[in-house]
Design a protein that fits this description.
- It contains 5 helices and 4 strands.
- Helix content is about 55%, strand content about 5%.
- A two-stranded antiparallel sheet has the order 1-4.
- The chain has one domain: Helix Hairpins (Orthogonal Bundle).
- It is mostly helical.
- It is elongated.
């Protein structure tokens, strides 16, 4: 299952929670295809990407594209891969539904302290 979701790129900061995450790509993403694409489209997409890259990219990305093509061009591996993707999607749906079904919890909100110079201006204006 090491080939299920491939990682490429650097970790990106999440601005809201200040956490880091990695984007996961599928083999279809590397070949820029929708799931269920025909073998002819897979071959054409692979050739197009090879021509577009033309040796001007890092070796890791090239290896991931070749690996994606190898899996998607073999009918048995592709069927197994599609089944795994379906199971992962179903599991993600269950997790999302469980998260959305939880009651919304409001947290206490705190008023921000007003800076002293602004407070002085407001008091002078109000007087």
């Amino acid at each position: 299952m090491a080939w299920l979701l491939l990682r490429y790129g650097q970790e990106t900061p999440n601005l809201k929670r200040n956490r880091r995450f990695t984007v996961h790509y599928t083999h279809y993403d590397y070949l820029e295809l929708p799931p269920g694409a025909s073998t002819t489209r897979i071959e054409a997409a692979y050739q197009t990407i090879k021509q577009r890259l033309n040796g001007q990219t890092d070796d890791m990305l090239v290896r991931l594209i070749h690996q994606a093509y190898a899996v998607l061009s073999d009918p048995e591996q592709r069927d197994e891969y599609d089944d795994i993707l379906e199971r992962e999607a179903a599991q993600a749906d269950v997790e999302l539904k469980a998260c959305l079904d939880q009651p919304f919890q409001t947290t206490a909100r705190y008023v921000q302290d007003v800076p002293a110079p602004l407070l002085a201006v407001i008091r002078a204006w109000a007087a």
